[in-house]
Design goal:
Largest sheet: 8 strands, mixed
Shape: globular
Strand content: 15-25%
CATH class: Alpha Beta
Number of strands: 10
Number of helices: 8
Number of domains: 1
CATH architecture: Alpha-Beta Complex
CATH topology: Spore Coat Polysaccharide Biosynthesis Protein SpsA, Chain A
Order of helices and strands: EHEHEHEEHEEEEHHEHH
Strand order of the largest sheet: 3-2-1-4-9-6-10-5
Length: 251
Amino acid sequence: MKIDIVIPSLGRRKQLSAFLASLQEEMIPDTTVYVYFSRERDMIAAGLMFGNRAWLRYRLYDKAGDDFNMTEFWHKHMQTMNADVMGYFVDDMIVQKDCLKIATREFEEAFPDGDGVLGISSLLPAAVTAFGVKRAAMEPIPHVGCSLIGKKFAARFPDYQFYCPDYWHLYPARELLKTATEWGKVKLSTEACVMHDSHPWNGNGADWVYKSLRNRFKDDDHKVWQERRRRKLLWGLDYTLIRKEVLAHED
C-alpha cells in the first residue's frame, strides 16, 4: 500500500522541523511526505533547515495567501496522486511512537480494498473542556481531522472531492465523518496518535497561524455548517452546495 502524507505549512518553521523530525523516526516503507508551502521563501527555508530526504518532497501551493482554501488543497493532491492512501496531517503535529505503523495496519485490516477512512487520535492533556467534560491526562481523542483516507473512498465523490466544497477551512472533517459513518466506512483509532502543538486545548495555547485561520474562516464556515445541518444536507448523500447563498445574505 502506497501512502502520501500531505502537510500544508503556513510559516511555522520551528513546528514543521519538529514534525518532520518525528516523522523521520516513524517512517515506514512506501510512504512519501509532501509539504506544501504558501510562500516560496518558507519552502526555501525548510529545504535549508531540514535538507533533502528520499521520502520528502517540497511543493508550492499555487493559490496561497488570503485564498488558501484548505478543502480545495486536499482535493488537488488526491486527484493527482499515484498513492493508494492519503494521510492528512498539519505542520504543528508531533507523530507519536509507531503512529504510522499502527495506522496503516489498522487501515488495511478495516479496509483491505482501500475504501475507507481511518481517524488518528490527538493526545490532549488533562482538562475540563468548554462543555464541562472532564478529560483524563493524555487521553487519546479520536477524530478524522487527522486521518488516512483511501483513494478508493475519495472516488465515491465527484472528482475526488471527499470534503464538502461548501467549507474552506473548518468543519469539512466533521461532515466527512458523518458521511463515512453513514456508509460504514470509518474506523477511529485510539492507538495511532499525534500531539497537536498549537491546539488551544493542549496547554500551549493557539499560535498566530491557528488564530488567523480561525478568525478568517470561523464565522463563514460556521454559518454554512449550521445551515447545512438545518437542511439535513450531507455531502456524499447529496451534492447540494449552499455557501454562496448563505453568505450572500450577510452582504
